[in-house]
Amino acid sequence: MTSTTTDRQQAETERRMAVEAAIEDCRARSIREVAAELQLGLEEKSGWLSGPCPVCGGHDRFNINTRDGGFFCRKGCEARGSGPIDLVMVTLRLEFMDAVREMHGDLPEKVTQEELDSRRAQRAKAEEKRAAEAERHREKAIEGAHGIWTRARGQGMQPVRDYLALRGLTPERLPELPGCLRYLPDQAYVLKRVVDGRRELVTMHRGPAMIAAIQGPDGRLTCVHQTWFDLSGPKGKPEILWQGERQRNKLTRGSQRRAAIRLITPDRFDTLVMGEGIETTLTAAVAWREALGPEVAYWAGISLGHMAGKMRKIPGKRYSGLPDMACEDGFYPPPWVRRLIFVMDGDSDPSPTRAKLECGIRRAMRLTPGLRGQIVPAGEGVDLNDLIAPSSPAETDTDPR
Ligand SMILES: [Zn+2]
Q1: Lowest-confidence range among 111-125, 208-222, 238-252, 367-381?
Q2: The DUF7146 domain covers which part of the protein (predicted)?
């Protein structure tokens, strides 16, 4: 009787180890190979595989980063994830263990502890190789950012002043231009796109651009933010078209890890106001400076995704609003900040926007115990930039919970 129970326990342990070994095997697989087996019809160029989205189609909207295994669809459909198992789950619409069975064939009957350990070691080695490749790529991108920042040194700032005035930030409202802004009169707007089945760098536009330094926690420049403008366009925005589709007028170059655009940074501050874009954040500074006082920094968070950091996936919920604390790439507030105010633009879909901001606030509160987080909406359906009239954040306080 006892021996049967022990046998059963032994069999159960072996079965569990066999499953774990199969998962390790799948995780260690190259994303390239798995994408090829899935016949996704992707083309590779400089570290990216691109092509039609396995969920929603198109031509080149689906992208896999071969360095870290992350993938996403530009249309924002559910085709996003990380690693070979996620890719199989998304493409074949399978649950986790079914995807493992699909990739692995029949699961092994049993494996020994040594075999399992050796598989884990193999996977760790593959992981290490990928991380090293990603780090090399990151260093190259930071070099590119420094190149742009250096080229923009010493350029006259009048065109940037004129552009900001078109966005309501006149010299009267903003007497001093932030030191983290520079100007380039003829900057190329370059993106990778698939042309005749090949991924290529395409110059879609050239023109004047406002260049902003993006600084990591130690103050070093790791990235630049570029805003192309056209002083004759509506709100100063240029029309950048690619195959008839209008493109955003902003691009970054470099590594954004934990970084921000430090627009206004007093010597001492314990409150940080952060909007997504430069214009929104400066508008908040103009409107709230008097109400909030001098010991307040105004930094732009670059993108909602960066302010949020990685969000935890919860079955049945597209946006959980809960931070994945294993991710260390999103924005990190300085450890001395006691109050963090996120400005919520009203011009985007409110529910995902709100979930992302809540995720970022929760992340900050976990990182800095005692920090107070707030999300201050800029008014329904209105970009804060359109609301230059002062409003007190205290009146619109919203508890992120
Ligand atoms: Zn898609």
Answers
A1: 367-381
A2: 140-237
